[in-house]
Amino acid sequence: MAEEGQGWVRTHCARMDHGGCSLLVRVENNRIVKIKGDPEGFLNRGYSCPKGRTSAEKLTHPKRLLYPLRRKGDRGEGRWERISWSEAIHEISRRFKKIKEEEGARSVAFCQGMPKGLEHFVLIRLANIFGSPNVVATQDVCHAPREISGVHTCGFYPVVDFHEKSELLVLWASNVTETNEEGEIGALAMEQVKNGTDLMVVDSKKTALARKAKYWLQPRPGSDHALALGMLHVIIEEKLYDAGFVEEWTSGFGELAQHITQYAPEQMEEVTWVPAPLIREAARFYAGAHPAAIQWGNPLEQNANNFHTARALVSLMAVCGNLDVPGGNIHANEPPIMGLGKFVRADLIPDKRKEMIHAHHHTIPRLMTVPPAYFRTAVLEEIPYPVRGAYMQCTNPLITYADSRKTYETLMKLEFLAVSDIFMTPTAALADVVLPAATQFEFNDIGHYGLGHGYILARPKVVEPAGECRPDIDILNELGREMTSPEYWHEDYEAFLEDVLAPSGIKFDQFVEKGYLKGEDRYRKYLEKGFKTPTGKVELVLSTAEKFGLSPLPVAEFLQEKNDEFPLVLTSAKSPLYLHSSYRWVEGLREREGGPLVQIHPDTAAKYGISEGDQVEIETENGSIIQEVYINEDVHPRMVYAAYGWWFPEQEEQELFGWKTSNFNMLTTTRSLGKEFGTPDLKGISCRIRPLRSEDDK
Ligand SMILES: Nc1nc2c(c(=O)[nH]1)N[C@H]1C(S)=C(S)[C@@H](COP(=O)(O)OP(=O)(O)OC[C@H]3O[C@@H](n4cnc5c(=O)[nH]c(N)nc54)[C@H](O)[C@@H]3O)O[C@H]1N2
Ligand SMILES: Nc1nc2c(c(=O)[nH]1)N[C@H]1C(S)=C(S)[C@@H](COP(=O)(O)OP(=O)(O)OC[C@H]3O[C@@H](n4cnc5c(=O)[nH]c(N)nc54)[C@H](O)[C@@H]3O)O[C@H]1N2
Ligand code: SF4
Ligand SMILES: [Mo]
Question: What is the pLDDT of residue 6?
Fold first, then answer.
């Protein structure tokens, strides 16, 4: 623990978003009494947000889970008995081993939502050692599309180099000041802008950052691939690209140039809603700025067309000469730490690629976690084989997976479900065993391992865990020792932290003193050995397309047809005050944002006879929910901008805390999925709204 003067401890924020801010935390008698941003923070330089500053409240909440529980009544009935940790571990182990004996290890799935720290990798390790290829994660809608499309196109995941100055920063569906996406970027992006970097914002809403930007493009949700292709069209047609780089380091440019003729801005205007002259101007501006960096955000991935969007964006970065240059989109160099493959013991499960559920659905190579839609098909329809048991940590799928009804059926059908969480969620309420997890500030952890930004952060423990809560890493280590061969596990789970750090030659204590480890800055690495693709170049046309059944060039298909019955277009963004479905029960946050608000334009409100504060029904072909109207000129008149992640912890557990009422994922479906990542459409869905006036309506 690093003492920073009297009673102040320095650690890194975590589990309220991707984390990253260095915090100074004041502790008195094992209680946190104040949190503030650390002026010396490597990534935040003193910044902190309300979520971070309020985060200690969750540790002492009176309804926090404090003991392991076993279900007594029917599933979801809300009747529990308190059990000991050894009973809980034994029960989970016994049930999973039984399924393994009867059906094979692959019939047990290990599920995680947003990775929060080292626990994600220890979970994969447990699955590998147990022998199950099925780690289910929300990566289909979060990072895998950009990371893996990047790897196939240029051999790496291109991230913004926020540590060198860019001439232009493009925030494309990325609201960094509200989401601090991937940790470093909120504060560092603002610092760049303060120092004269131009800003271009491509966002379906006029955000605070859009107001600061030189250019703001407001695409129809879900049409970003068409917009990117329109920009590529201009850059190629007007010969604005970096001819030297294109000539020497790309393959397929001629074919791309030919292919792109069909995507003139004048044609793309109709599908993207962005005026053609603005597409042309923005493309010229991007091509003329050196270096320019594109910070790509999460909505780009939340569509069946995400592979094409990501491919089009990497093509833009490449032809304009912005790949792996200082201040551009770089291949970040990791510090000397243990490789992921070694940490998770990938060697123990050599047939994983063939055996994992999604192999059956012919997803893109390198996607190593099961898309949630296919996990549910395995449980409900036994395709390609039955899945009967699941372990879930750090996730609330009933609210966060698309198609909540299907998730409900899945959870109800599972023969055995264990959930580790810090609070009784709608998902945990359906479990057989619930484990109380220790969380932020309560254990030693390493942040940003495996995120691809070239550094890791120290998150030393600040207080002792509440009740009988235990860190997930500890729980998994214990389960591993009982459920698999103990030789793969540690006496003390903290040895995992030392494993990660061992190649750097430092111990966790020393790491805490340093605060972070960053890889060396090295650019244009392709000059030595080429790009890590089969052709050694950036593959504008994929050389592996036929082999893997992929589209060789990015195309703008899959836009939902105009739908007269559902004339509006639905999207959402993360709330700045909550993490997905988490923490609606933290009073300090709830009092700032009390309920689910749907934003619509004043013209739309007038058209449908809706007033500010009205309860409205939002309806898609898949379902309907109720949210409260907030009229806002910043959203497009054809758009419905709903809140995501809502359930009501204050409601009855037997009713699963009102999981259906306002939950965005009641509106989404998994009927059609993107081929590459198994992604459903979460953005750009046809919808309609109507005011609820009578009590009957509600
Ligand atoms: N419609 C729609 N769906 C989406 C998205 C969207 O934008 N729209 N976003 C998607 C994205 S990007 C993601 S990453 C996923 C996120 O999906 P999830 O990860 O399932 O969402 P969270 O609400 O973060 O769930 C985290 C759970 O972990 C618990 N928790 C917090 N700390 C700890 C801890 O230390 N240990 C344990 N065991 N539990 C803890 C919280 O209480 C909470 O219940 O959702 C996806 N789903
Ligand atoms: N406060 C908070 N922070 C978070 C999270 C959270 O839940 N809450 N979640 C974390 C996680 S797991 C992730 S993945 C990241 C995500 O963080 P971001 O990548 O920033 O994602 P979002 O907030 O979903 O959306 C970003 C912006 O895209 C706009 N947008 C919506 N639909 C579209 C569209 O179709 N096209 C375009 N161009 N713009 C669109 C929204 O208006 C919004 O301003 O945030 C992380 N940080
Ligand atoms: S921006 Fe994120 S990392 Fe920083 S204080 Fe807020 S929640 Fe924590
Ligand atoms: Mo995410």
Answer: 66
